[in-house]
Structures are given as structure tokens and as C-alpha cells.
Amino acid sequence: MAVLVNKDSKVIVQGFTGTEGTFHATQMIEYGTNVVGGVTPAKGGTTHLDRPVFNTVQDAVDTTGADVSIIFVPPAFAADAIMEAADAGVKVIICITEGIPVQDMVKAREFIRSRDCRLIGPNCPGVITAGEAKVGIMPGFIFVPGRIGIVSKSGTLTYEAADQAVKAGLGISTAIGIGGDPIIGTTTREAVELLMNDPETDGIIMIGEIGGNMEAEAAHWLKENMRKPVVGFIAGQTAPAGRRMGHAGAIIGGADDTAAAKMKTMAECGIHVVASPANIGATMAKVLKGELVA
């Protein structure tokens, strides 16, 4: 059923009783996500939102069988929360936290490499399988079930792309917000590969931005492995070199980091590149009808 999360996922919330954790856990539960509990140190044995609270992720996993965790933990402690979830055997770890020190993320990413798990984020909107499970901060009502997958560095553009796909009569299978930090757990290519291998996804929307080489890496992989149409957009077309724009990783460090360079590479690799985010949904609809050929 789509990728990463579905109606059978057992989700725990790290930072469950905090303001952000409470607000978004409530929204997730209302969407129908199977939230089985949460973790807040020193509050184990209590309940919150009618779910049990545990002192550690290991306690939560042992008691509930949780296989997905979403992290709403302050930046100074978020990397430790990622490693704790990985060490406890959680299979999908989604970190929403923004502003985690780069050095902390270097350690966390190295730690999880030897564990059987996948990290999404940090600094991301999360993952949603439309109509089944929302594990993140995205507005759930936008995501109507369908067969278009989304991979995006930008939370806002994830929502925009989903809205356009729905209005074009397509709907969403799974949307993955990979995050905009320099060091993240799952790259654009890895997320695109998940959706390319998903039998319930017919087309993929890939949204990138200036900075780094993840879009180029994904494009070169797609050139050899594209079995479904991909529509792409790169944000930051007017960004000046050397200045960070929004996300910590959105900074042009060289000629290949510009939006123009990425768009050129993507188009050469068979991706249907749009110059404006306003054209994402309509372009995907035309591609699926056979009206556009890369």
C-alpha cells in the first residue's frame, strides 16, 4: 500500500506531550493515522490524547509494536532522538525538527547506517499516504487518494503540487517531504526510487531547489530506470549565488547548484521540467494522457 506509511503503520510521537507534538498528533489522529502512543521522558505511565506515554522509545516499541516514529524534539536533542528510535528498532523515522546542528546530524546519519531503518528529514513536513496515514505536519485535507507520488525538498510546494494533482483529477498515492537541510536521511533519488517501484503510483512529481546535487543524482538514475513519467520543478530560479535562501541547504555553491543547471540536467534525462509551480498538475495530466513526450 503505497510507500513508507499506510493504514497498518503503528506510529509513536517523540516529544508527544509538548506543544508541537500535541497539536500535530491530534491532527494525525483526526486524519485516521494509527497513533499508538508517544514518548516524553519522566512522563512514562501517564496518558495523553487517550494514548499511553512512555519514558523511552524502547519501552514504546516493546509495548505497542510501533514501527514508525515522528520526532517533535528541540534541535539540541533531536539527533539523540533519531538515534534512540533507530536503536529501538523503529523502521521509519520521520524528523520534523528544524535547526539541528550539522555536527549532530553527521553523527546521527552515521549511526543509522548500520541499523535496519529509514530516516526522513530532518527539517521536513513528513510523509503522507493519502486516505491512510499522515505522519507529519501537512494539511491532510489537500491529499486526496490517487496514483501520483510526490518527492519534495519544500513543504509548501508539496502541498501546492498535491492540490494541483487533485484538481487535475489525479490524486496522491504517497507524498514524501525529504527536508531541506544539508544532511538528511533519505535523498531525492532514494525517495524517487521508492515511488518508481510502487505499483500504486503511476507518475512522480519531483520538486527540488538550489544547492547540492541530489536532483542531478536523481535525474541520472531516472535516465536509466524511468518506467513512469516524472514531472520536475526547481525552486530558486532567481536566487543569487552564495546566499542561503530559506532552507539551510539552499545555497548556490557552484555552477551546478543553480536552478538553471539542475533544470537542464533533468530535462536531458527525460524529466518533464516546468518553469513555474503553477504548471505541475496540468503537465502531469497531459503526460499521462500521452499529450507530452519528453
UniProtKB/TrEMBL annotation:
The entry's CoA-binding residues are T17, G18, T19, E20, K43, I96, T97, E98
Kindly report, in one word, the top-level EC class recorded for this enzyme. ligase
What's a Gene Ontology MF term here? succinate-CoA ligase (ADP-forming) activity
- Which residue ranges traverse the bilayer? none
Q: Which organism is it from?
A: Flavipsychrobacter stenotrophus
Q: Which family does it belong to?
A: Belongs to the succinate/malate CoA ligase alpha subunit family.
Q: What is its EC number?
A: 6.2.1.5
Q: What is the lineage of its organism?
A: Bacteria, Pseudomonadati, Bacteroidota, Chitinophagia, Chitinophagales
Write the protein's name.
Succinate--CoA ligase [ADP-forming] subunit alpha
The reaction(s) this protein catalyses: succinate + ATP + CoA = succinyl-CoA + ADP + phosphate; GTP + succinate + CoA = succinyl-CoA + GDP + phosphate
Q: Which GO terms describe its cellular component?
A: succinate-CoA ligase complex (ADP-forming)
Give the keywords, sorted: Ligase, Nucleotide-binding, Tricarboxylic acid cycle
| PROSITE patterns attached to this UniProt entry | SUCCINYL_COA_LIG_1, SUCCINYL_COA_LIG_2
Q: What pathway is it annotated to?
A: Carbohydrate metabolism; tricarboxylic acid cycle; succinate from succinyl-CoA (ligase route): step 1/1
Its quaternary organisation is:
Heterotetramer of two alpha and two beta subunits.
SMART domains named in the record: CoA_binding (SM00881)
Q: Which domain of life is it from?
A: Bacteria
Provide the active-site residues from the annotation: H247
Q: Which residues form a coiled coil?
A: none
* Stretches assigned to the CoA-binding domain: 4-100
Q: What does this protein do?
A: Succinyl-CoA synthetase functions in the citric acid cycle (TCA), coupling the hydrolysis of succinyl-CoA to the synthesis of either ATP or GTP and thus represents the only step of substrate-level phosphorylation in the TCA. The alpha subunit of the enzyme binds the substrates coenzyme A and phosphate, while succinate binding and nucleotide specificity is provided by the beta subunit.
Sequence positions that bind substrate: Y159
Tell me which Pfam families the record gives: CoA_binding, Ligase_CoA
The processes (GO biological process) annotated in the record are: tricarboxylic acid cycle
